[in-house]
Each structure stands twice: as C-alpha cells, then as structure tokens.
Amino acid sequence: MFQSNRSWFALITFCATTALVAALGLAILIASATVAFAVAQSLSFQKKRNSVTPYQVFAGVITDAQCGARHSTKLGQSPADCSRSCVRNGSHYALVNGDRQYSLEGSDPAAERLAGQRAQVSGVLSGETIQVSSVTPQ
C-alpha cells in the first residue's frame, strides 16, 4: 500500500513540474516577443523622427515663378508690380538667389508685401519648393 501512495505522489509531482516548466517557457516566449516588438517600434519611431527635415533659412529676392529674376521691361512695371501681376494671373511666388529658384508654398501675404525685395525665407525645403514658415526683409 505504501508503494501505491508513492506512485501517486510521483505522478502529481511530475504533472506539477511539467506544468510549471511549460508556464515558465510560455512566459519567457511572450516576454521575448513583447521586447522584440517594443524594440522594433522604437527603431521605427527614431527613423521617422530623424527623417523630419528641419527648418532652414534661405536668402534671395522674392519674385514670381514665371518671370524669375528677369522681368519684362516692355510693360513699364517695377519688378515688384510685375511679380504681383504674374501671381494674380496664376503664377506663384518664388525666391531667386543667383541661378537657384525655389517655389514658395504658403505665406503669400508676406511674399506679396516683399515682392521685388531681398528677403529671408524660413521653411522646409522639399525638392525645389520651400514650405514657408516666415518671410522677413533682409
């Protein structure tokens, strides 16, 4: 009879140990997956944060994209009036510095006020377009 009790005790001990080992293995697997997911999300967030282009400051003359640095003298208008006229007729403001021309997106009232003048434009450059945050006279 003593032998029968011992086999039951061994069976219960074996089952409890197996259940504990399985639970511990499952807990380690879930914890590892959680850490891997968190690391992947962190790397993805850092990549997005680093890809954000910072604001830059550009200097040049505010003009329109159609005429650029060379306004027609046939109409007898100043460069500022020519730029404003071209923008009213469908063109958009631009910043010219030497042989570089950037299209200006946003902040049209400030660009209109400084048309034909040297100015500093702060914004984010994307290709040949500046998303304008501010325009100040130079």
Helical content, roughly? 40-55%
Give the C-alpha Rg: 35 Å
Largest sheet: 5 strands, mixed, barrel
Secondary-structure-derived class:
alpha+beta
Task: Give the N-to-C terminal Cα separation.
Answer: 103 Å
Overall geometry comes to: rod-shaped
**Sequence of secondary-structure elements:** HEHEEHEE
What's the count of strands?
A: 5
Summarize the structure.
By secondary structure, the chain is an alpha+beta fold.
Could you explain the architecture of this structure?
The structure is a single chain. By secondary structure, this protein is of the alpha+beta class. The radius of gyration is 35 Å and the shape is rod-shaped. The chain contains three helices and five strands.
Q: Which descriptors would you attach to this protein?
A:
alpha+beta, 5 strands, 5-stranded mixed barrel, about 140 residues, about 50% helix, 2 domains, single chain
